[in-house]
Amino acid sequence: xxxxxxxxxxxxxxxxxxxxxxxxxxxxxxxxxxxxxxxxxxxxxxxxxxxxxxxxxxxxxxxxxxxxxxxxxxxxxxxxxxxxxxxxxxxxxxxxxxxxxxxxxxxxxxxxxxxxxxxxxxxxxxxxxxxxxxxxxxxxxxxxxxxxxxxxxxxxxxxxxxxxxxxxxxxxxxxxxxxxxxxxxxxxxxxxxxxxxxxxxxxxxxxxxxxxxxxxxxxxxxxxxxxxxxxxxxxxxxxxxxxxxxxxxxxxxxxxxxxxxxxxxxxxxxxxxxxxxxxxxxxxxxxxxxxxxxxxxxxxxxxxxxxxxxxxxxxxxxxxxxxxxxxxxxxxxxxxxxxxxxxxxxxxxxxxxxxxxxxxxxxxxxxxxxxxxxxxxxxxxxxxxx
Length: 386
Prior knowledge:
It is a single chain. The protein folds into 2 domains: 2-134; 206-379, Rossmann fold. Residues 191-203 have low confidence and may be disordered. It contains 6 helices and 7 strands, in the order H-H-H-E-H-E-E-E-H-E-H-E-E. The chain is 62% helix and 12% strand. A 7-stranded mixed beta sheet has the order 3-2-1-4-5-7-6, covered by helices on one side.
């Protein structure tokens, strides 16, 4: 039983020690190779010596032949005997030479074996070098990839830092604009209070409810640049002009059919250009934004449809904002015949039927008198009408 247990252990020991034994054998072979090379060198040296001996023998033989010729007559028999001895000696030398040649042949075989082993070692070395080169190449590529990623991250990080700095500057600029707007708004509110009181007291021009105004201003701030060209249609007492100036909009024109008391209310200081025109007859090139605040209800339906579709089809504007009271009847006001409502039945269904290209963005309750003020928009990014 103990013998059977020892056998697997011996096999395992042989397997685990195989690599070590191979290394030892390899070292032994190299040592033997060196010894064989030394022996080969010694044999070569001995061979040279033999060649020298043979050469000397040839020289000596020549001398003997000369002596033989000189003494052949007088000493023929002794020389013959000596010649026979030399022949015997020569045969012995030939045997030695043959033995040396045989030994050299054996050494050549050993040299061939050593060369074969050396070639095998060279092949293994080349394979190892190729594996190392592949590893170095892959490591180089991986290093380059990591460096590129690091550089890209650095560039991206710098870009983010630049964006943050720009946003900080922009944020500060917006804060400054808000501060200016708040101050201007306070001033305009003060002026508006005076003007509204004067307008109500004297019945100078039509007034506009605050309903829907926040939604309109929000839309303008989000969609219209500060340097955009804006037309305020039916500007009345100039509410939209004043609000837009408070938010630093630069190019605002006004168009209205009613020309009374414009200077008294300072409207000529609010608008860059004032046109006393019926919007149905007003010809212009292009505005980025047209505001029709509380205007559409004062225009007969077919004329209003033709007007708005003309703005769009003829590419007269980039944006249109329309605010209109729902189901609200009104006659003349403040002595202004144009204050009469000509579309008093407006509601959601009415607007969708007659103005399908307008999009509802807000509905607000009109303070004090009640009712709904609806705000619609169209812009060039919305689908065009047929």
